[in-house]
Structure formats: structure tokens, C-alpha cells
Write a structure and sequence with these properties.
Strand content: 15-25%
CATH superfamily: NAD(P)-binding Rossmann-like Domain
Order of helices and strands: EHEHEHEHEHEEEHEHH
CATH architecture: 3-Layer(aba) Sandwich
């Protein structure tokens, strides 16, 4: 049985990946999230190929449960999409509790590497891993410090994994979107309306990411705006980029 696994599948970018994957010749799409009602809605929308799995990826036993299920059902994983993530409020690091920090690292970093380790033995040539990083992975980002650092980890890990798998027929792609309209972005911070330059809906990001993965690319950058910001981050000193970012968000702090 050939399957795809999508984490964070209940909404936003994860849901967009599920929709795109329904167009691929897969026997099942395993949709991982915590919200059982939203998972049930995916199955109601796209039918019996959708397999809802209510798991909290901050818990180590979730990856173990997936591994057991893969072995029991003798699955071949064609796509692994690590889209689950924990965000961070735009604020100084001191406002972030130790518990929040631990959960962010567990979901954004540990779960990504754990699921790659779990799924790789079940993947063959033609298989694709897509790990969701971010435009924020291109440089340090004050006031989104931990989130951006976690996404830099995902980007670096994924591109190195892709290099390790060269010649196997497997690919790993770091997906680096800018602001994505998931319905979860804050409209105001501190009473000030927030502007999100380059804001895009999830569907084109997921569509391009899958195309880039299937073309064997180790990184997917969607929209001219994000490509421009990637170039800026490569050409300018990081201190200059951080200064520019800090000036742009000062009104919200």
C-alpha cells in the first residue's frame, strides 16, 4: 500500500498539501493533527483515502505509534510532509515561557527529525520528504527568535539530508514560504494593525513545493517577494538584515 503522511493536516498549509496529494495516485493519505473534528472534516471532504490520526507530535510516543502502524500495514511512504508547527508571538524572548519554548522545539525540530527517521526505512526511489521551514530561516530574526531559529534548523537539516540521499532516488525539500494566510495570523498587535508583506494563500505554496520536490530540488521558495528576501539575506551582512527587520516591527512592540 502506497501512502502519504501529512502532519499539521487539519488546516492551513497542511490542509493545502492534503488537497494537492489527493491528485496523486496514492492508496491512502494519513493526516496527522490534534483536532479530531477537523480531521473528520478532511475525510468527509475527500473520502476514504483520508486516514485521520489524532496525535500530539510534541510527545515522543506519537512517532513510535506511526512507526508501529507503518510496520503493521506494510506501507510504502511516497510522501512525508512535515507541516505541523508551533508559532511564536512577536515579542522579546523573555515573554516566552520555558514550557512554550520546549513545545516549540519538540514540534518544529524534534518531531521533524523523528518522523524522517521513522519513514525513511519505508521509502523507496521516487519518494519525497517535504519539511516546512520558512523565509525566517534565511537569517536571525529578533523578536521571533526561537521560531526563526527552529526553521533555520529545519532548512539546514533538510538540505543536508537531501545531499546524503543523492543517488538513492529519494529527495528532501526544505519549503521556505513567507507569510501564509492560514487564518491564524494576528490582525493587530498592541492595538496596531499588522501588515504582512507578500502574504499568499496556502494552495500555491503547497503546489509549488510538491513540484519542486518532484523535480529533485532541495529547497522550494514561493513568490518573487520571498526570492528577493532570500537574495537580500545572502548579499547583506546579517547585522544589517536584523537591523532592517527590527526597525520594521518596532511599532508592534
Amino acid at each position: 500500500m502506497t501512502i502519504a503522511i501529512v502532519t499539521g493536516a487539519s488546516g492551513g498549509l497542511g490542509r493545502a498539501f492534503v488537497e494537492q496529494l489527493t491528485e496523486r495516485p496514492l492508496d491512502e493519505i494519513w493526516c496527522v493533527a490534534r483536532d479530531e473534528e477537523k480531521l473528520a472534516a478532511l475525510r468527509a471532504r475527500w473520502g476514504e483515502r483520508i486516514v485521520p490520526l489524532s496525535l500530539d507530535l510534541a510527545a515522543a510516543e506519537s512517532a513510535q505509534a506511526l512507526e508501529r502502524r507503518l510496520r503493521e500495514q506494510r506501507c510504502a511512504v511516497a510522501y512525508l510532509v512535515n507541516s505541523a508547527g508551533v508559532g511564536e508571538e512577536l515579542a522579546p524572548t523573555g515573554r516566552f515561557s520555558p514550557e512554550q519554548a520546549a513545545r516549540l522545539v519538540a514540534v518544529n525540530c524534534t518531531a521533524v527529525t523523528s518522523l524522517c527517521a521513522v519513514c525513511l526505512p519505508f521509502m523507496a526511489a521516487g519518494g519525497h520528504i517535504l519539511n516546512i521551514a520558512s523565509q525566517s530561516a534565511f537569517q536571525p530574526v529578533p523578536y521571533l527568535n526561537l521560531y526563526a531559529s527552529s526553521k533555520a534548523f529545519v532548512r539546514s537539516y533538510t538540505r543536508a539530508l537531501h545531499a546524503e540521499m543523492r543517488g538513492t532516488g529519494l529527495t528532501a525539500t526544505a519549503v521556505c514560504p513567507g507569510w501564509v494566510d492560514t487564518g491564524m495570523l494576528a490582525l493587530e498587535v498592541g492595538g496596531v494593525k499588522v501588515r504582512y508583506p507578500g502574504l499568499v494563500p496556502p494552495a500555491p505554496v503547497a503546489r509549488k513545493a510538491l513540484k519542486d520536490a518532484e523535480r529533485g530540488r532541495d529547497q522550494s521558495v514561493c513568490t518573487l517577494y520571498v526570492k528577493w528576501m532570500h537574495l537580500v539575506a545572502k548579499l547583506l551582512p546579517q547585522r544589517a538584515v536584523m537591523w532592517g527587520w527590527t526597525k520594521s516591527v518596532q511599532r508592534y512592540l
